[in-house]
Every structure is written in structure tokens, then in C-alpha cells.
Design a protein that fits this description.
Order of helices and strands: EEEEEHHEEHEHEH
CATH superfamily: Leucine Aminopeptidase, subunit E, domain 1
Strand content: 25-35%
Distance between the termini: 29 Å
Radius of gyration: 18 Å
Helix content: 25-40%
Number of domains: 1
Bound molecules: ligand AR6
CATH class: Alpha Beta
Number of strands: 9
CATH topology: Leucine Aminopeptidase, subunit E, domain 1
Strand order of the largest sheet: 3-4-9-8-5-7-6
CATH architecture: 3-Layer(aba) Sandwich
Structural class: alpha/beta
Largest sheet: 7 strands, mixed
Number of helices: 5
Length: about 220
């Protein structure tokens, strides 16, 4: 069983904050390679009292208190992770969504998780990427507001997808920086509220970006 697919067992703090350092091969003009810059990558890190974990996998399989959905303003379903969550969770999620009257970009609303292992789904609506300053503020608001909703319902273990980086086109590096920095700010403001935040990446290349950014995070 890989991380994220089993029952969570807390690890003692001394085993956390592990960092693997990978050397980046640099290609010379003649095609040969040398090893140059050193880049850190981290899969787990403790921020305040909250464990941040990067996972490569399917968020619908996460057995956390709440998974976050990258929805649209209608909250009535769509493609990408939204479609996957509704398919795996079943019609109870849509039935709840239909009572909510949609959701503004940057806001977040909570429903049942239906048949999913998670207890709740927090639906947030990320911005479509246009390269404007407000895009970053709206994306940060998705993470911050989702964590507010979690705190309101005492949901202590939360899994996020990379909101806005699929159909909505947000560049993964910049979106990752915003995701991690915003979550770190929130857990510093509320150190008792969250046990674990999982960043569930759909594929190895996004996970590598998250692991690199996690290693750079000021804790
Ligand atoms: N588990 C984890 N991550 C996933 C999964 C999964 N099962 N499936 C996709 N991703 P997207 P957006 C990743 O497009 O950009 C919907 O139609 C995906 O690789 O799902 O916020 C909504 O209804 C990407 O990294 O969401 C909206 O209309 C990330 O999830 C629109 O898409 C987000 O990609 C929202 O677009």
C-alpha cells in the first residue's frame, strides 16, 4: 500500500522533515552532461504542528477528513478532478451541491462525500488563468477559504488537488508556490487546527514541482 491509500498512522516528529537532495544533470553544448546545481526535494514536512505531504495519486482514494474539489461556479459537476469526485462519490454529492446555489470564484462550500472514504468534500472554484494579479489572489483564496471551511467543521486532515492547473490553465510552478505558501500561512495562524494537509498531484511531473517547492518553504 502506498502513502495515502491506507490508514494514517502518525509518525514521530524526528522522522519528519526528511529531505532528499538530487543533483541536476546539466547538458553541455556538446551534448555531454555534468552534474551541476543541487536541488532539494521533500515529500513530507512539518509546518508549525501540521504535516504537509506531497502524494502522486488519485484524490478520490484519499481517506482523509476532507478532500477538496476543483469545481466550477455551478457546482453541478464537470471534467477533470471534479468529474472524478462525482463519479467515485456517487449522486449524493450532486444532490447536496444542488442545494448550495453555486459558488463564487475563490470561495468554498462543503458537501457530503457520498461513497468516498473521506468524510466531506470541500468544493472550491479556482480562477481561469489570464495572467492577471487577481488570478493569484483568487487562487490563494481557494486554499485559504477551503481551510476555513475545514476548521469550521473540525476537519483536521485535508487533501487538495492542484486547483486551476488543469482545464483552467494555471501554470503549475506558480500555482504550487501559491498553494504551499497560503497553506503555510494558514497553519501558522491556526497551529492547533490541522493535523495534516496532503497535496495530491495527478502525475509524477506535478509531484516533482510540489516536492521541490516544499523543500524551499520557510518553516
Ligand atoms: N486526483 C487528483 N488530481 C486530479 C485528478 C484526480 N483524480 N484528476 C485530475 N486531477 P482540473 P481546474 C488534477 O482540470 O483546472 C472541471 O471541469 C489535474 O491533473 O480538474 O481547476 C471543473 O468543473 C490538475 O492538476 O481543475 C471546472 O469547470 C488538477 O487536478 C474546471 O474543470 C486540476 O485540474 C476546473 O479546472
Amino acid at each position: 500500500m502506498g502513502p495515502g491509500f491506507g490508514v494514517w498512522t502518525p509518525e514521530p516528529p524526528e522522522r519528519l522533515n526528511r529531505c532528499t537532495i538530487g543533483e541536476l544533470p546539466i547538458r553541455r553544448a556538446d551534448g555531454s552532461r555534468r552534474h551541476g546545481g543541487v536541488r532539494g526535494r521533500m515529500t513530507e514536512r512539518v509546518v508549525g504542528r501540521t504535516r504537509f505531504v506531497v502524494v502522486d495519486g488519485d484524490i478520490t482514494k484519499e481517506s482523509v477528513d476532507a478532500i477538496v474539489n476543483a469545481a466550477n461556479q455551478s457546482l453541478l459537476g464537470g471534467g477533470g478532478v471534479d468529474g472524478a469526485i462525482h463519479r467515485a462519490g456517487g449522486p449524493a454529492i450532486l444532490a447536496d451541491c444542488e442545494t448550495l446555489g453555486g459558488c463564487a470564484t475563490g470561495d468554498a462550500k462543503v458537501t457530503t462525500a457520498g461513497r468516498l472514504q473521506a468524510k466531506k468534500v470541500i468544493h472550491t472554484v479556482g480562477p481561469r488563468y489570464h495572467g492577471r494579479d487577481e488570478d493569484a489572489a483568487l487562487l490563494a483564496s481557494c486554499y485559504r477559504t477551503s481551510l476555513v471551511r475545514a476548521r469550521e467543521q473540525e476537519l483536521r486532515r485535508i487533501a487538495f488537488p492542484a486547483v486551476s492547473t488543469g482545464i483552467y490553465g494555471y501554470p503549475i510552478e506558480e500555482a504550487t508556490r501559491i498553494a504551499l505558501a497560503t497553506c503555510a500561512d494558514v497553519v501558522r495562524e491556526h497551529p492547533e487546527a490541522y493535523d495534516e494537509i496532503r497535496f495530491v498531484c495527478f502525475g509524477a511531473s506535478d509531484a516533482a514541482v510540489y516536492r521541490h517547492r516544499l523543500a524551499l518553504l520557510d518553516v
